[in-house]
Amino acid sequence: MISYLWAQDLHGVIGKDNRIPWRLPGELQYFKETTMGHPIVMGRKTYDSLPKKPLPGRQNIILTRDQDFKAEDCLVFHSKETLLAWIENQGGEVFVIGGAEIFRLLMDEVDRLYVTKIQEAFKGDVYFPDIDWSQWKLLSSKRKRKDEKNPHDYDIQVYERNEKQRIH
Questions:
Q1: What CA–CA distance (Å, rounded) separates 113 from 4?
Q2: How far apart are CA 90 and CA 87, in angstroms?
Q3: Alpha-carbon distance 12 to 15, whole Å?
Q4: Does the reported pTM lie above 0.90?
C-alpha cells in the first residue's frame, strides 16, 4: 500500500527554500511514530533537506532522474516504474514523504493520505499538488491545540481512497 504523509498550511504550502516553514514538534513526533519501521520514499531535494541522513529506523528510498546520484544506506531509483515494482514486492505500507514533484508523480498510485493541516498561513514556494477530495473518505481527524511547545493549532487527518481502482 502506498501512503502519502505531509503537513501543509491553510493554502497548501509545504515548503520554502527547501525547508519546512514552521516548527511543530508534535507534528514531527507524529511523523516519526507513523513512519517508523516502514519504507519512506522521497525525492532528492527532500533528501537533501533532511538534517539527519538517512532517517533512522526506516528504509530511505530516493527517486531521482540523476543517474549518478548515490546516497549511503539508501535505495535509489531513477524511474517511477522501477520504484513501483519494488513497492509491489514489499507488502505492507510504504510512505511517500515529498516533495511536491514526487507527490504529483505518484498521485494516481496512492491508497491513503496522512495530512497535517496547520491552521495558519505561511510564506512558501512549494505547494502540495491539487487533490480531487471527492475520491477520498475521511477515516480519522484529530485536532491539536497550540501549546508551549507547538505554536500553531493543527489537524491530523487520515483519508482512504474511495475507489480502489487506480487511474492509469
A1: 5
A2: 5
A3: 9
A4: yes
Residue with cell 525525492: 43
CA distances from 66 to 40, 59, 71, 79, 123 (A): 19, 20, 12, 10, 29
In angstroms, the Cα distances linking 31 to 40, 82, 124, 156 are 11, 26, 21, 10
Quote the pLDDT of residue 91.
85
- pLDDT at residue 168, as a whole number: 46
For position 164, what pLDDT does the model report? Answer: 59
d(CA 28, CA 49): 15
Residue 26's pLDDT is what? 96
Q: Report which of 133, 141, 97 is spatially closest to residue 6, judged by C-alpha positions.
A: 97
Residue 167: the pLDDT is: 52
Burial of 43 per CB tally in 10 Å (0-12, 13-18, 19+): buried
Where along the chain do its domains lie? 2-161
Domain 2-161 -> CATH class: alpha beta
10-residue mean pLDDT series, the chain (168 residues):
97 96 96 98 95 93 96 96 95 96 97 98 97 96 96 98 64
Classified as helix, coil or strand, 12 is: coil
Edge-to-edge strand list for the sheet holding 112-118:
74-77, 60-63, 40-43, 94-98, 2-8, 112-118, 154-161, 136-144
